[in-house]
Amino acid sequence: MENKRVNIKDVARLAKVSITTVSRVINKLPSVTKRNIARVEAAVAELKYRPNISAQRLASGSNNAVGLVMPGYPGIFHSFFAIEIIRGVGHACEVFKQDMVFHISDGVTPLNSSYMGGIIFADIIENRAQLEDSLSRHIPCLVINNVVQDVDVSYIAINNIKGGDIAAKYLLSFGHKRIATVTGNLKTQAGFDRFDGFMKAMDEAGIEIPKEYVYRGDYSRRSARQAAEFLFSMKERPTAIFAQSDDMAMEIIAVAFEMGIRVPEDVSIIGFDDSPLAMYGPIGLTTVRQPIFEMAEKAVGILHEMINGTRDTRLRLAMDPELIVRESCAVPSS
Amino acid sequence: MENKRVNIKDVARLAKVSITTVSRVINKLPSVTKRNIARVEAAVAELKYRPNISAQRLASGSNNAVGLVMPGYPGIFHSFFAIEIIRGVGHACEVFKQDMVFHISDGVTPLNSSYMGGIIFADIIENRAQLEDSLSRHIPCLVINNVVQDVDVSYIAINNIKGGDIAAKYLLSFGHKRIATVTGNLKTQAGFDRFDGFMKAMDEAGIEIPKEYVYRGDYSRRSARQAAEFLFSMKERPTAIFAQSDDMAMEIIAVAFEMGIRVPEDVSIIGFDDSPLAMYGPIGLTTVRQPIFEMAEKAVGILHEMINGTRDTRLRLAMDPELIVRESCAVPSS
DNA sequence: CTGAAAGCGCTAACAA
DNA sequence: TTGTTAGCGCTTTCAG
Fold it and tell me: What is the set of domains in chain B, with CATH numbers?
């Protein structure tokens, strides 16, 4: 039934060379005559031979699959963030001709780390144990999307403080004074930092944000809807709102439409993410773009260097977000 | 530098048993005394030993990583569909303790199939060659989300014809007569089938759909917006619209709001997908749910059976979609 | 119930 | 440039 897999020996036999030569051709080592290369390639083609990767790894000791470990909390897979990471890592792996072993982590199941040449941890939340375990095995690890202080590991993060700052300054540039914000989950580093950067910039500008203008959301559309209904029904409505995710920003705009409030004439809205959603809808959403895809791509490159020993110092990198101007912000009319 | 990995021998030495016994404990084979199990486990813990998967695979001949190959066309990663597949496969792999090797296919790069015990192809579009190649190597393959006729391979698909039928019948149940549809990409099997099922049901019910009531979209929000603007500005407006994706349905609703057309009073809208987006927005979207996650999960189970020879007959399964009633449909007022 | 020994398919010295 | 040979770390008969 299971028709025996063709192996390197079969190829060697057919090509009338040694298995070493076949191995050399497969690995594109120099020092093989053209004639032999041709013979081997012909045999490979005829037999449809594919090297057994497990054997290659075992024999060579090398291990070129990059692991991507993502937290599995509900909702993450609907987030733009998660998708961009998968895309970025996947794409870079394609380029580096490495396999990507994808692991949705429950924080408990141990990783088959022997399998992976290196591991990228996206967002350390509950999988700190896995990270430390892998580290203790001397497997190259890289954390993305999180600034990690308490563990000696390289990371690439997004400068969310700067992101909050960018949003704040942009709103201020129009002369807004009554500025509200709908936060993401403040327990996450990203959520806190965006908020922090935003508030600091306001402070520096001498703009005071009253408590009622700070609505603690959780990135969900539901929370944004509640926030919008609350803010829009205030006696003294804000003239600008910084929503800490595009999803929330879009929901706020939707509520505004429903309530007959015009964007950006009556209220300016700025989001965060530059999700593709931001381009559609009734009005283009001005937002702060996070280079998630680029971060993920870069991570693979760095990991690559770590794996082949080109890099051994700890990397701490925070990538800067960028303002994307569309139509949802303007000077206040009131 | 690279501190030597601990291997099964080290564990055996420390536990004072043979490596065979260690292997047995690792693989949870019976026939090991409790005492020895304990000794081995202690040694494993102390040494932080992890079996080398490449060696395990090589020695056992087995190969338990499931490959997931997805087309890489632009936009796919923003689709609800793709995410659900990744989640479903990822989750099931976790359960079966298999690794998931994720491959974003460009249709050209050959797969490292020797790596995988079996492969799940999501949506055969441009990667037919890879599928056939893998098949010719006798690697268990399973196609999901596509009915495949011309290749002898098992598949699990969604019954989109039925889905179209469900949408049609639901709209008809309210007594709608002027019914329009905004199609997805009709070149895709899913798009065509939904349209087909819908039209047939209309036909059977004796309802004629004029040409202008069929707007050929492409799943994009942009196309939906155009469709909505077109349909809503007709002299004889449809009283109900079947949008062949939730994304498009949401956009149509947004346009309706902008134009002051009420949903569902003036126009009923039914979507397709049951994307999480459908739950938010100004009004709950009635839609047809596709069991994508379940399909992906099931695929892993089936593949598992194929891999260990429990199943060898070709499987052709189409899973039924299901109506999800929310608030966007009602009896026509005009 | 346990252990010795023979590979799994491949790479990497080392010789020739 | 090529081939011989010894493992890589583990599983799996097969004896004991």
Answer: 8-51 (1.10.260.40), 65-159+292-320 (3.40.50.2300), 160-290 (3.40.50.2300)
Question: What is A172-185 written as a DSSP string?
Answer: HHTT--SEEEEE--
Distance from CA of A117 to the nearest CA of B (A): 12
CA distance B90 to B96: 10
Tell me: the pLDDT tens digits for A53-85?
Answer: 888 888 887 766 889 998 876 666 667 788 889
Confidence of residue A334 (pLDDT cuts 50, 70, 90): low
Cβ B94–A104 below 8 Å, yes or no? yes
A103 with B99: Cβ contact below 8 A: yes
Q: Does B87 touch chain A (CB under 8 A)?
A: yes
User: For B117, which DSSP code?
Assistant: S
Q: B12: which nucleotide lies closest, measuring CA to C1'?
A: C3
Using a CB-CB cut-off of 8 Å, the residues of chain A touching B257 are 257-258
The Cα A126–Cα A105 span in angstroms is 9
CA dihedral B182, B184, B186, B189 (to 10 degrees): -130
| Tokens representing residue B329 in the block | 């449909």
Question: CA nearest A106 in B: which residue?
Answer: B94
Per-residue b/e over A51-75, b at no fewer than 16 CB within 10 Å?
bbbbbbbbeeeebbbbbbbbbbeee
**What pairs with residue B289 in β-bridges?**
B273, B322
Kindly provide the residue ranges of all beta strands, DSSP E only, lying in B217-267, ordered along the sequence. Answer: 240-243
Q: How far is the CA of A21 from the C1' of D5 (A)?
A: 14
Check whether residue B97 has its CB closer than 7 Å to nucleic acid strand D.
Answer: no
The order of strands in the sheet holding B179-183 is B214-216, B179-183, B240-243, B268-273, B286-289, B322-324
